[in-house]
């Protein structure tokens, strides 16, 4: 059993959860993820490793309450244990010296971009980070990103903090001011990643996205997480989760993510009714 060592709420709906996981903490690399089963009757969900401490033997996950399982996970407290934890899974981020790298995190995507941003900086790159959220309340890890980036640009959709607008606006502003990146890494909601991909395609800027399709076993056996990349069927759990953004079929990805919306909504409503 993997025990929760520490928990803190980054916002009313986003929790930072530190779990005891010595093997995973020692072997994980930026970009990899784990699959968590909160209780013995729960579903399996993939969560990217935001941070790992090999000496303490812990990993940190950042979880936004969206569906039943993420909501249930965020209700747990230090001292409680999750039923199952498997990892590290997926291919690590491709880290090398590119020159100027722009990393973009939308919402909890910032938690996924965080370790990879650090690795790009340690590889000698100039790193500009753009982080955004719908509102100030949902913005996370600003200080942590400032500590590892040469420059951080913050946006909120509603203008409740920093620059009003979308992360795409900030990236376009950089490009138009001749601050052109050699690589863009974009992680966040699918519409955001799609918009970034369409923008960078115009300027022929290599772009990587981390995909978040429905996932079950995390080993490539079930085929649930299949995505179309460059006209080929690939599996996000073993071939990714990071892919060339300009090769991703975002239409297909969006359609698959909507497959169980009704069931997910009903499941969350039942959880909330039990709590009451």
Give the SSE layout:
Layout: E1 2-11, E2 14-20, H1 22-27, E3 33-37, E4 44-48, E5 51-53, E6 58-64, H2 68-75, E7 81-82, E8 84-89, E9 100-106, H3 109-122, E10 126-133, H4 142-148, E11 151-156, E12 163-164, H5 167-176, E13 183-187, H6 190-202, E14 207-210, E15 226-229, E16 232-235, H7 236-239, E17 242-244, H8 250-257, H9 261-275
Overall structural class, as computed from helix and strand content, comes to alpha/beta
The count of strands amounts to 17
Unreliable runs: none
Number of helices: 9
* H/E element order: EEHEEEEHEEEHEHEEHEHEEEHEHH
| Gyration radius, in Å | 18 Å
Q: Work out the helicity level.
A: 25-40%
Oligomer: single chain
Describe the structure.
By secondary structure, the chain is of the alpha/beta class. It folds into two domains: 2-89, Translation factors (Elongation Factor Tu (Ef-tu), domain 3, Beta Barrel); 100-257, Nucleotide-binding domain of ferredoxin-NADP reductase (FNR) module (Rossmann fold, 3-Layer(aba) Sandwich). The chain is built from nine helices and 17 strands. It has helices spanning 22-27, 68-75, 109-122, 142-148, 167-176, 190-202, 236-239, 250-257, 261-275, and strands at residues 2-11, 14-20, 33-37, 44-48, 51-53, 58-64, 81-82, 84-89, 100-106, 126-133, 151-156, 163-164, 183-187, 207-210, 226-229, 232-235, 242-244. It has a seven-stranded mixed β-sheet with strand order 12-11-10-9-13-14-17, with helices on both faces. Helix 2 packs parallel to helix 9 and helix 5 runs parallel beside helix 6. The longest helix has 15 residues, at 261-275. The radius of gyration is 18 Å and the shape is globular.
């Amino acid at each position: 059993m993997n025990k929760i060592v520490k928990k803190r709420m980054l916002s009313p709906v986003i929790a930072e959860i530190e779990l005891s996981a010595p093997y995973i903490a020692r072997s994980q690399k930026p970009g990899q993820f784990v699959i968590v089963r909160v209780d013995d009757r729960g579903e399996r969900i993939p969560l990217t490793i935001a941070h790992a401490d090999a000496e303490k033997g812990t990993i940190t996950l950042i979880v936004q309450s969206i569906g039943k399982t993420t909501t249930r996970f965020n209700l747990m407290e230090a001292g409680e244990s999750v039923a199952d934890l498997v990892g590290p899974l997926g291919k690590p981020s491709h880290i090398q010296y590119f020159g100027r790298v722009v990393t973009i995190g939308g919402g909890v995507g910032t938690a996924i971009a965080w370790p990879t941003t650090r690795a790009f900086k340690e590889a000698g790159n100039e790193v500009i980070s753009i982080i955004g959220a719908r509102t100030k309340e949902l913005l996370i890890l600003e200080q942590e990103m400032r500590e590892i980036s040469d420059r951080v640009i913050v946006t909120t959709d509603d203008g409740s903090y920093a620059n009003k607008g979308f992360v795409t606006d900030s990236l376009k502003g950089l490009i138009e001011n001749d601050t052109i990146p050699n690589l863009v890494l974009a992680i966040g909601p699918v519409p955001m990643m799609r918009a970034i991909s369409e923008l960078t395609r115009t300027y022929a800027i290599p772009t990587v996205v981390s995909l978040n399709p429905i996932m079950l076993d995390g080993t490539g056996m079930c085929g649930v997480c299949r995505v179309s990349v460059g006209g080929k069927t690939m599996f996000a759990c073993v071939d990714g989760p990071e892919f060339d953004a300009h090769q991703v079929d975002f239409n297909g990805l969006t359609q698959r993510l909507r497959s169980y919306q009704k069931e997910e909504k009903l499941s969350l409503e039942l959880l909330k009714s039990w709590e009451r």
